[in-house]
Description:
Helices cover about 40% and strands about 25% of the residues. The chain is an alpha/beta fold. The strands form two sheets. Strands 3, 4, 5, 6, 7, 8, 9, 10 and 11 form a nine-stranded mixed sheet that branches. A two-stranded antiparallel ribbon has the order 1-2. A hairpin with a 4-residue loop joins strand 1 (about 50) and strand 2. The longest helix is centred in the N-terminal third of the chain and has 24 residues, at about 60-85.
Amino acid sequence: MVNPVHLRTLLEVIAHGSFAAAAVPLGYTASAVSQQMTALERDSGVVLFRRSARAIEPTEAAATMARHARKVLTDIDALLAASTTAAGAPGADPAQELRLGIFPSLATFALPRLLGARDWAGLGIRLRVSVGEPHQTIASLQAGNELDLALVFQVGQTGLGWPGTMDRQWLGDDDFRVVVPASWKFADGARVDAAQLANMPWIMHHPGTSDATVISRLFASLDLHPRVMAHCDDFNASLHLASTGLGAALVPALAMQQKPDGLVVLDVPEIRLARSIFALQVGSSRSPKVDVFMDRLAAELRQISIAP
Length: 308
């Protein structure tokens, strides 16, 4: 039988590139990690690492095992989380509460899909959700007793930051799309030079936000001087305003899941911008309920082409 503990260690070794580096977050010695990997090789009957005096190199078998291990471990975590809610279970917590901070568009376009899954209720996790902008969510997480997990985004190298004591996991990049009214007679998906959009009416972020600053700098570098017809930080509202012909808008792919009629998406090579999505936690230890939630969220993001 393969030991699940050894599978978790395998994932850390592959992620960190060495036994010594993997030992730190696991709280083991490098020797203990090496012994676990030797035991996993023995139990599985395959060679997982090519070892030299100074380095290790994962084999294809190790990469394959790691891919399957993630699903196996997620299923185990789900089993444990659900079993603690069983009536009469010793020490059962009837509500495995996860206090989640999340930014609005992720809460609008991804979270309902996750909560709507048929087996979600059986996982035994109850979410307590706080929707807010990243700086608000980070402050709540830093307070120490308000949130267990914060989902935030960062556009370019903005001023958004967090303390070094927080553990950060990158979930993927949410690419921005240029959308324009269909009445402008562009073909959907057409490749357009930025110069063709110069002096066009636009729906822009409110000035003063980090997002607006990054976008303004990008436009200025392209000599784009949009006629601002509206300021709006609500992407759903921006999409609907654009669909009426008010102006073009720059909207992340996440919000495009509910794109209204009357819009076309343009490919503007000079306008390449994305916001990186991160999960933040205080400390590096992760509970089963957090692992289960994170794996489910990653699966939802992959469905809409947002993945590391």
